[in-house]
């Protein structure tokens, strides 16, 4: 009898097949002076440095993990809050390009009155969008699942969720796709070498063997998983290692740096990593770092409705890559802009001269993905004309040849009052400053943010936005 599949699996199923899109952690820029973890990057005067450069990022785990913590009755730790992942959780409906590059979408407004700042303060939203994948365009997949079966995974909603998701995913993949299964606790064990999905019953049997017990030797799991993926590498296919864990390594090699070095070497061999976080206790930092170095991204399973939506909308497209090593650079006009601050992306900051250095890692962006960045800028008095130039650079996933596009930002695009701004900009602003509030940084009161997002929710008619309103109100009651 076929196994019953909980709805919450769907996000995990998306994660297991959706493996294109996370930037590797890049060197931080001494020019841009990114903030410490949990703190914002400082405001930068254009007389000091007028250029902001960062690797693109499509992570959302920070938002979904924060949502779980708040819904469970506690505020998340500040070190787990990354504003860009709050911003990128939402769908802003940017237009898609006709080709394989990006559209560059820019809008802005005055800063909302709740900030009680002068009239020269503005918001600039930069939205980048890739083209969705056409039916039948996806290459075959070779997926190596590395599954944490330590004792901590016995908690309800961890290993049981992983098993059901794997059963479900095996039934959804194409017969010509292939899957390998590695389990680890005190040590790693290969339960199934790379096997075509056409032989799915053997894969289902291996999934049924998973049992939670023992300690967490994450290092042995990673090393074994990448060995299996390398030995069974399929040329022309999407080769991925998928780590499913609560990220709480406690035995063997627990050094992030040595594990990251291993993953970096394998990622350069075109085997990227997806991290899937589970559990009420979750090693967020380690999972994010591993995905960064592995040219992948990290997701966190939080709730059922979100899981179904992600599965329906994104699973078919997420095995491919539209752009390798994608980076953005915003050059502010010193004659019109006095200062600027990028909200979030501290871990993705690059030196300005690394933008056109194609040996420096950027983000891997998949079909139909969008990346959004929000800037707070102070204009000079009576500013007119060009405010900034937005540049995007990436490598073609097939030829590795670089491409670059740009778009100007004009002062006239930033003249609207915030109340008249697009709903997407309002949502982006609230998501970013909700994260800033959770990081204990300077931000408007949560109840003011809730009022703003309620209005934006009416305009966007988006269930995610409605849920953000409820989340902010719950967090406000805990303060």
Describe the overall structure.
With 479 residues, this protein is an alpha+beta fold. It has a domain at 141-317: von Willebrand factor, type A domain (Rossmann fold, 3-Layer(aba) Sandwich). It contains 12 helices and 16 strands. It has helices spanning 9-17, 61-71, 83-87, 159-172, 200-208, 218-231, 256-267, 284-293, 304-314, 423-438, 446-460, 463-478; strands at residues 44-45, 51-55, 102-110, 121-130, 141-148, 178-184, 188-196, 238-245, 272-277, 297-300, 323-332, 337-342, 363-365, 370-379, 386-395, 402-410. Helix 1 (9-17) packs parallel to helix 9, helix 7 runs parallel beside helix 8 and helix 10 (423-438) runs antiparallel to helix 11 (446-460). The longest helix is centred in the C-terminal third of the chain and has 16 residues, at 423-438. The chain is globular, with a radius of gyration of 22 Å. The model is unreliable at 1-38 and 303-317 (pLDDT under 50).
Labels describing this entry:
disordered N terminus, alpha+beta, 16 strands, Rossmann fold
What is the compact description of this entry?
Helix content is 30%, strand content 24%.
Secondary-structure element series = HEEHHEEEHEEHHEHEHEHEEEEEEHHH
Reading side by side through the largest sheet, how are the strands ordered? 7-6-5-8-9-10
What separation lies between the terminal Cα atoms?
49 Å
CATH topology of the domain at 141-317: Rossmann fold
Q: Level of helix content?
A: 25-40%
Whole-angstrom Rg: 22 Å
Low confidence ranges:
1-38, 303-317
Give the overall pLDDT as a whole number.
Answer: 83
Which architecture of the domain at 141-317 would the CATH scheme give at its second level? Answer: 3-Layer(aba) Sandwich
* Main beta-sheet strand count, sense and barrel state: 6 strands, mixed
């Amino acid at each position: 009898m076929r196994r019953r599949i909980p709805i919450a699996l769907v996000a995990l199923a998306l994660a297991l097949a959706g493996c294109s899109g996370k930037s590797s952690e890049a060197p931080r820029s001494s020019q841009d002076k990114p903030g410490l973890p949990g703190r914002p990057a400082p405001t930068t005067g254009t007389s000091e440095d007028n250029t902001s450069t960062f690797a693109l990022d499509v992570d959302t785990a920070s938002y979904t993990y924060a949502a779980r913590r708040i819904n469970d009755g506690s505020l998340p730790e500040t070190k787990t809050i990354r504003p860009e992942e709050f911003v990128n959780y939402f769908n802003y409906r940017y237009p898609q390009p006709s080709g394989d590059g990006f559209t560059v979408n820019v809008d802005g407004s005055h800063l909302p009155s709740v900030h009680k700042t002068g009239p020269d303060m503005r918001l600039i939203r930069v939205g980048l969008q890739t083209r969705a994948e056409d039916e039948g365009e996806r290459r075959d997949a070779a997926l190596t699942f590395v599954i944490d079966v330590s004792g901590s995974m016995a908690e309800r909603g961890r290993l049981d969720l992983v098993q059901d998701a794997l059963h479900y995913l095996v039934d959804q993949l194409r017969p010509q796709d292939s899957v390998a299964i590695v389990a680890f606790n005190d040590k790693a064990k290969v339960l199934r070498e790379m096997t075509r999905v056409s032989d799915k019953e053997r894969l289902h049997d291996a999934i049924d063997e998973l049992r939670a017990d023992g300690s967490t030797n994450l290092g042995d799991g990673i090393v074994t998983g990448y060995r299996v993926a390398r030995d069974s590498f399929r040329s022309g296919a999407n080769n991925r290692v998928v780590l499913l864990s609560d990220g709480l390594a406690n035995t063997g090699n627990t050094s992030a740096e040595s594990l990251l070095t291993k993953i970096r070497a394998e990622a350069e061999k075109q085997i990227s990593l997806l991290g899937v976080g589970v559990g009420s206790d979750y090693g967020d930092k380690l999972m994010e770092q591993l995905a960064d170095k592995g040219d992948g991204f990290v997701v966190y399973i939080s709730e059922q409705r979100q899981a179904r939506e992600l599965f329906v909308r994104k699973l078919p497209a997420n095995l491919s890559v539209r752009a390798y090593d994608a980076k953005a650079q915003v050059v502010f006009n010193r004659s019109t802009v006095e200062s600027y601050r990028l909200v979030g992306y501290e871990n993705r900051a690059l030196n300005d001269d690394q933008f056109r250095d194609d040996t420096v890692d950027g983000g891997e962006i998949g079909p139909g993905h969008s990346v959004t960045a929000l800037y707070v800028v102070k204009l000079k008095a009576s500013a007119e004309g060009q405010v900034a130039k937005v540049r995007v650079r990436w490598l073609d996933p097939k030829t590795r040849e670089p491409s670059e596009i740009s778009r100007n930002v004009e002062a006239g695009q930033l003249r609207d009052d915030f109340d008249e701004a697009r709903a997407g900009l309002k949502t982006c602003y609230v998501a970013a400053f909700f994260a800033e509030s959770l990081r204990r940084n300077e931000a408007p009161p949560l109840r003011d943010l809730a009022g703003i997002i309620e209005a934006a929710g009416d305009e966007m008619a988006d269930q995610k936005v409605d849920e953000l309103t409820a989340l902010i109100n719950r967090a406000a009651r805990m303060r």
